[in-house]
Amino acid sequence: MKKLSIIIPVYNVEKYIAKCLDSVIDIERSDYEIIVINDGSTDSSDAVIADYAAKYPELIRAVSKENGGLGSARNAGIDLSQGEYLLFLDSDDYLAENAVAEIIDYTEKGFDIAVFDFIPVTEQGRLLPLVKGCERDGLFSFEEFPELLFSPPCACNKIWKRDLFASGSIRYPDRLWFEDLATTPCLYLGAEKILHISKAWYYYLQRSGSITNNSRLDRNTEMLTVCDRVLDYYKSRNVYEKYSSQLLYMCAYNELITSTTRVNLAAPESQIQDSLLSWFLQNFPDYETNPYIKAMPPKLTLLLKLIVKKRRKSIHFIMKLNNFLKQK
After folding, report:
1. E strands along 77-128, which residues?
2. Are 153 and 184 in contact (CB under 8 A)?
3. Backbone phi, psi, residue 299, to 5°
4. Largest CA distance in the chain
5. Which tens digits make up the pLDDT trace of 287-316?
6. Alpha helix locations (H) across 56-130?
7. pLDDT by residue (tens digit) across 114-124?
8. Please, what's the b/e burial string for 119-158 (b: 16 or more CB within 10 A of its CB; e: otherwise)?
């Protein structure tokens, strides 16, 4: 068995895929594999993948499939993987120098999930502020630190023990936006040992065509399906009440505040905001008593109040101003 399987879903990224693959090639190591899933690309991505697979046949396994979305491609990689641990890498992103060797060495620590930091980067190559993968350092359990639910749910800044997926009970949803949030919180429940590694191994490209910047506003309602999926999973495991406070805040931040402000920036009067608010209030009518809601930073507290009161012009002004200040 290999120590690590790096799974790279690919869809129409001819401009980025070479840099991505270059970042995971380490000819000094034979204890890992790279699984590249071409998810029905219509550009020249497949030709680039074929060149790399021919050059590094001992490292790269290339597979082509009909387009099924990011979740479907990741699932295909999981099913093909032979590594004790899994690392997901989006094909427009890349790893830091020597990251592969360091990650493999860290797998000797015997964790179930390791969380590490990442750095957003613009298409012009400008590095943005580092994002911490977790607010707690060292080794811990989910029961000890359920506030992990508040950390970025990204699949790609984590090293996953393959056994978490082995039963087949948890897979990424097909053709659903926010598939990381739909899956990561469920995987936490299967982990006994979680490790935060304070290393920024991952460079996350911010590009206009990515899912988080896409202008199809109606797809933001898929966040409702995502949150329902997570809440139902916790209920099925009989731990919903145990983690209800953390789950409420997770939904408040992701489903209500983040999704509403994303929609509002593009279309201040969009009725999608009504759907997001209605779902939240129906599921969490007593949200104001939640200790994490009470402890929110002033900016989030203000946004939440404006969202609940449907003060959409005010929200739009604040978010436009916030974006302007970020660019200065």
Report:
1. 83-88, 94-95, 113-122
2. yes
3. -65, -45
4. 59
5. 999 999 999 999 999 999 999 999 999 999
6. 70-80, 99-106
7. 999 999 999 99
8. ebbeeeeeeeeebbbbeeeeeeebeebbbbbebbbbbbbb
